[in-house]
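Good morning C.,

I know you're traveling, so I'll keep this short. The sequence:
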Amino acid sequence: SIHAAVLYVVLGDPRAEQYFRDLKANVVRIVDGNSVFRQMVSRGEVKVGWTDTDDVNVAKEAGEPVEMIYPDQQGIGTPVMPNMVSVTKGGPNPESGKKLVDYLLSPEVEKILAESESVQMPLHPGVPVPPNVRALESLKPMTFDYAAAAARGEEIVRRLQPILGL
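The tokens, ready to paste straight into the viewer:
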């Protein structure tokens, strides 16, 4: 997953591998998706795990007994994954593509995304922060190279298979 690749990029391979070995020693469980994990936490089957803000929001809105913790605010920070949009170089309608990007980046669309079930963190001033997430400026975001993490994704999955017993 991208979250694991980010830790490899930020911590370096030896520290990241030790982190995952330590997780395995503490009986980490790998499940088939974020919603499966969220349900396990809600039922008390597991106490803690990694997921995204949208899954926690769904649980909180349903009255499930979960809380969101933004990790490592004194250390390397919390990974913040951006939504991305781009115009394909050499595409057939670059001007229309640019208009679409401008619209998707507008405060109006950001408000819709912030108010949706996926509770995206708004960046525009004046767009209200949804109740079940924190404002970006209240966090210590982890600094990392997104391209480097994405480029290593498949490699990291292969490396983690023997470590985590997958």
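Safe travels,
E.
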